[in-house]
Amino acid sequence: xxxxxxxxxxxxxxxxxxxxxxxxxxxxxxxxxxxxxxxxxxxxxxxxxxxxxxxxxxxxxxxxxxxxxxxxxxxxxxxxxxxxxxxxxxxxxxxxxxxxxxxxxxxxxxxxxxxxxxxxxxxxxxxxxxxxxxxxxxxxxxxxxxxxxxxxxxxxxxxxxxxxxxxxxxxxxxxxxxxxxxxxxxxxxxxxxxxxxxxxxxxxxxxxxxxxxxxxxxxxxxxxxxxxxxxxxxxxxxxxxxxxxxxxxxxxxxxxxxxxxxxxxxxxxxxxxxxxxxxxxxxxxxxxxxxxxxxxxxxxxxxxxxxxxxxxxxxxxxxxxxxxxxxxxxxxxxxxxxxxxxxxxxxxxxxxxxxxxxxxxxxxxxxxxxxxxxxxxxxxxxxxxxxxxxx
Length: 391
Known about the structure:
The protein is mostly beta strands. It has helices at residues 176-183, 204-217, 255-263, and strands spanning 10-12, 15-17, 43-46, 51-54, 81-84, 87-90, 117-119, 125-127, 133-136, 139-143, 159-163, 167-170, 224-227, 234-237, 250-251, 324-330, 339-340, 351-354, 370-373, 382-383, 387-389. It starts with 9 loop residues before the first strand and ends with a strand.
């Protein structure tokens, strides 16, 4: 684009303006810039004369807060007091309905949590190792989406799938406190959310390593062979198992198990009904997704504690939205025919992720939505939940 302003003018915020300080020693030059030389520290710009004047500190009875010259009114407040409109007032601790966390006066709400519990965002002590497992009975369902489903992708070809073995699946995504309790560290960039928020920033390999550690803690067999120590670990299905379904320890769900559990016997694009053509992105409100999922239309670009939304008919929370969940399978096209206990292809470069996330569109929070990602990738919207084949 060529110049549009007259000689001597300059373009500022799309408008032509003429820089001019005249006799000003400070203040604006008319184009949003500063008239030189500006004012020295301890001076302020007099808005009447545009000259630099010595800043006279004025506390006006204040004993705390700013003095008007970028300083503070002395002496400030003693411990146990807070500054309110320039005056020190006694801070009244408030622990209403809280048993842990800050009391609002730089203190802690008693009695706090012992070593086996974590303090959640609501000031409650939660057992980070307490997990709720939901049993999913074997059965047959239609995997994928019909051609007329709003938001559908070509990779969602419908086909009949039979799961022949019962399994249990975690009712929520793995929480940060739980992951840290099992693995001894928390990889989440969003750790300020608290221990009851979903784990984030985990690679597929870290998720698999977690399931091995969980199996070991409960006396089950390990489904993966892992080399190196987490977070720098590489895992693969233990070759002694012909399929993931053959291992009775904890593991990541196959893509078929994940969708079977997410649907919970329902047939629409979500277990709360179909997302329509006008609510496929970040439109808000969204009568279908708002009750069941954190997505870009209601999450305010941040993660939230697990289990706040309405669960599906099986009692599973956050299967849609919140975090993408790693699955066992290497990504591949669906088979054209019906399948029994499928688990993708033997090798590949990208693993399946399911469920959508707090950063993604409404169309991503559909039960049939598939995405893929390299197993060494970890992002703030990558989480998981384990399963275990029942004997």
